[in-house]
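Following up on my earlier thread - several people asked me to post the actual chain instead of describing it. Fair enough. Here it is, all 142 residues.
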Amino acid sequence: MADVNTVRAVARGVRMTPRKLSLIASLVRGRSVADALVILNHTPKRAATPVAKIIASAKANATNNHDLDGNSLTIASLQVTAGPRQKRFRAGAKGMAKPYQLKSSHIVIEVTGAKKVRKATAAAKPAAKKTTTKQSAAKEEK
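Reply from S.P.:
Thanks for posting it. Predicted structure:
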């Protein structure tokens, strides 16, 4: 059976509310990476872009850094949590200040997949024909 490994990618401080990102994350949770990217490319929500980026990043990490097969990758977990909030004030009527918060999010994804199958290396190739002259035999003994 093939070796199954888990690779993780994290995007911190995404300038979007966790509620909006969670709706998009629930669309692709548990699917294969290829299916998830197709779904997100056809989703008309602004929150689909950062989720697609982090999935593509996890796929690149798995194939380039961990030698996993890109076709066998599936999303094991996709979490969206609240990040830090920036507190601001907006001008209100009669000189008042109206407070509001700029929300941000953290996205954590784990993908699993099988190791790439390696082809035979150059060391496994058959040896070249041996010559039977006395000089070559003497060289082989040394």
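The radius of gyration is 27 Å. That should answer part of your original question.
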